[in-house]
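Reminder to self: tokens first, then the designed residues, so the page reads top to bottom the way the pipeline ran.
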């Protein structure tokens, strides 16, 4: 399996190809859900993961099992996509492809995901308010993924891609400490 940046690039290429197929089928969101379910199944089932990763099992045998497992439950082109992954020995990239697919689909729909760090657990209304304010700042719909870190003392830290907005009390105290130290010199 390709590692690092090369693996991400390959996964993105497959995700782009699948998104084109899904749009032709007028079901981009549905295909994303199916791909995510396949990725989750692989992550949850060590036997399935071992089967797909095993070099001792032929690609044809794996494709046959996929065909029997999914049969008429998924669109034929979606199944052929999975079988092509197996044929190209890229089946271990399915989770990464699912992540890339989600990212591409969200970007095409103007949705941005933000990692939001708070000092304490907040009510759903507060999280919705944060999402609303961020959406206004960014000009796109922002989906917050909240984590808690008491070390920030208070306030909020937001990460969207390469952008970090640090409104934490810890940062403000650090800046104050720096200014007070500079005044003594």
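Designed residues (185 positions):
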């Amino acid at each position: 399996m390709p590692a690092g940046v090369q693996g991400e690039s390959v996964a993105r290429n497959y995700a782009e190809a699948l998104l084109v197929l899904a749009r032709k089928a007028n079901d981009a969101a549905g295909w994303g859900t199916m791909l995510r379910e396949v990725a989750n199944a692989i992550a949850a089932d060590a036997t399935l993961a071992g089967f797909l990763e095993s070099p001792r099992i032929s690609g044809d045998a794996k494709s046959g099992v996929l065909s029997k497992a999914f049969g008429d439950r998924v669109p034929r082109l979606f199944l052929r996509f999975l079988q092509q992954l197996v044929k190209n020995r890229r089946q271990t990239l399915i989770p990464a492809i699912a992540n890339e697919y989600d990212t591409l689909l969200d970007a095409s729909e103007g949705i941005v995901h933000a990692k939001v760090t708070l000092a304490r657990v907040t009510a759903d209304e507060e999280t919705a308010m944060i999402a609303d304010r961020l959406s206004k700042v960014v000009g796109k719909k922002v989906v917050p993924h909240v984590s808690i870190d008491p070390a920030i003392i208070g306030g909020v830290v937001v990460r969207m891609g390469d952008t970090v907005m640090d409104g934490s009390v810890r940062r403000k105290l650090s800046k104050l400490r720096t200014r007070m130290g500079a005044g003594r010199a």
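The chain has two domains: 4-107, 111-184.
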